[in-house]
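Researcher: Next sequence.
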Amino acid sequence: MSLWSEQGVSTQICALKTNKATLAASAAWERADLSHFEELTGGRCNLLLIDFSNGKGEKAKRLRFSLNEKDVMKLHAWAETPPQEPVNITWPRLHNYLVFSSGPHKGMCECLKLTVTRYATDPNGRPMKYPWKFTFDNGYAERVAGGNEGAWFEKSGSYRSEGRAGFSMSDEDYLYFVTKIWESREAFKRYAYETVYREGRRIVDEANGKGWKQPDTASAPVPEAQTAPEPDTTASNPEPVPAGIRPLTQEEMNAPTKTPETETKPSMPKRPMPKKALVSSIVVDDDQLTVLSNGASLARCTVVRAGKQYKVFFDYLPESVKESVKTKKPVDVVLYMYQGEIHCGGTPDMYEPVSA
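Model: Next structure:
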């Protein structure tokens, strides 16, 4: 249901339970890339409905849907101010753009749907005890290209449902469930601010010559000391030389410039290596990666150790993986299982070394 729960570390945000079903939400938020640090966050919130109406184990239905940040904002707005008018909205979403080349779903993509409804009264005008309902519908559909490059949508009339179930809740349960998701996103935003945002702002300020003013917080990173730019002594009206900074001599000006052998990239905090993760070599078999609607990527890869091909979801796409698409050479990555699927969480150097 959630990542690494076997080791007591879980990405689950919250869950609502009845004697016939469980509705759970788990976090899959992502920090923006340093090159786009102002975006701050991205990612999604994964919903999982386990319906026990027909029994448990293999008889139970497992349905899912991924909320993006816009979806969460809309749900939260309804939580803060319950709508006076009935709510009935459906989000159809291709889970990934990978088209099946064989089997019963040949020529189709996996398609997930979530319908959110709220009716304050029943058809007879009586108040509803559980006015909210989340209805999940998972199946397959053909895809058609959207207006934006790389965007795909469900082809009208092509959807085939493979499973459908719903979960009803009171206004109080809805408020609790959605607020917990919102609080999780807000907490992750603060984490992203303390890491990628501060680093991005420092780089931009230094590039603009503003320098970096140390924030008044104990958790803020301490930047390295910066050398003030040398004055232009060749100008007819040179700027006054700041105290402590001397102008270059003619000999120093004529000296060749030393270029560093390697460019130092901003260091990002490393994450602890989860115990259930596996460092393994993979070869990306596809000629190109499939970009998913949630910003992640998907490709068929051969896991060298197992000697078998698997479908791998890339939460983060390292440069070494991009290179492997072209060269077909093995690359070391961190793999883990999430909701029955193999995910790549980056490269080993992104994680803290595992102690013996």
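Model: Helices lie at 69-80, 171-207, 250-254, 319-327. Residues 171-207 form the longest helix (37 residues).
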